[in-house]
Amino acid sequence: MARSNPNHFRTDFCLVLANQVLEDEATKGNTNSNIVVSPLSLHVILSLVAAASKGHTLEQLLFFLGSTSVSDLSLLTSHMFNLTSLDDHEESEVLSAGDHLLLSFVYGAWIDRRFNLKPSFERLVKDHYKAEIRNDIDFLNEPLEAVDEINSWAEKATKGLVTKLLPYDSVNCDTALVLANALYFKAKWEKKFDASRTQARNFHLLNGQIVQAPFMTTDSFLGRYHLYKCFDGFKVLQIPYQSGQDPPKFSMYFFLPDAKDGLLNLIQKLKSNPDLLYKKFELTEDKLTDFWIPKFKFSFGFKASDTMRKMGLEKIFNPGELTEMLNIPDIANRKLFVASIFHKSYIEVNEVGTEAAASTAVLFELQRARRYPSFVADHPFLFMIREERHGIVFFVGAVLNPLLDS
Known about the structure:
Structural class: alpha+beta
Low-confidence stretches: 1-8, 86-98
CATH class of the largest domain: Alpha Beta
Largest sheet: 6 strands, mixed
CATH architecture of the largest domain: 2-Layer Sandwich
Strand content: 25-35%
Number of helices: 9
Helix content: 25-40%
CATH topology of the largest domain: Antithrombin, Chain I, domain 2
Shape: globular
Number of domains: 2
Radius of gyration: 26 Å
Number of strands: 17
Distance between the termini: 86 Å
């Protein structure tokens, strides 16, 4: 698909969000955590929220997502479906046949049985997003079962790589709707690594410690020429994946700081300049005298809504303008809002290639109806006797057991 405008497929806000998460984790100096985030998964789910928004909420979403309209945002989704045009059955056949590339991007919607989608939004999620819709969920009486179902869907859609996307306490009696997507990617290197040459080597942690990790290198008979270039403070290496007969073409880029403790500076550079990840690096095929890449495999999850609030995207979390999604009976004028957004990703890099997956879920709640307060002193409490004119406290005490009389 030719791009009429390259900005249609940019995910700047979600790239900055991902870099904010990278910065937060790197600043902690936690040597027991790796980070992987899918800006694409986050961007597309926010685009779907935008399609159901009005007023200032829509304006803020469009501003943060760098678009002028909902239709502009939908172009990225259309592009994704062009890349993932196979249905689930065909995808499984491709995977079992050992093809070079497998890419899938699917959506799901879970609606509480008390409500239903507005017809226009239902058409959007069915026809444009090809979402699997469940409208018989009982968030009110069976919240744990609902979480299990959504987590099972995400796990299946990511070939078992993303598990426990939602924590059990993420839904409650006010949950009305959950929207989610799941992204899966598997590709082989254009030139595979020689597994017989993989060996343990030193890896320097940010805290100065050194650990032994398995490192891969290419077969000496294939040469040591790689797409590579030095920049100010860091180096870039590109490793292409096999593309088969009909590309898309994919590559993995490694950004290596010159300093062993230079990761945080590099993250801050990327955060302040997202264009750096879009640029053509004009790498040259160079012969490297020493070439080693560590194998790795890990998952990372976080509550994306917390980071979005920190970055100033806040109106979707306020009731009032997410009006185009659900038909809601007049229940004390309750309005819909985004309660939380969870994101989890997985990646494995080895001698053969890369397998990666991500899933994002948005949980929508109805604002709570006014609840009249109660005061039942059925547990230990403090008391005070005070003269009100002058504010003199005559007595203060505590009742631990009202049956005691001495």
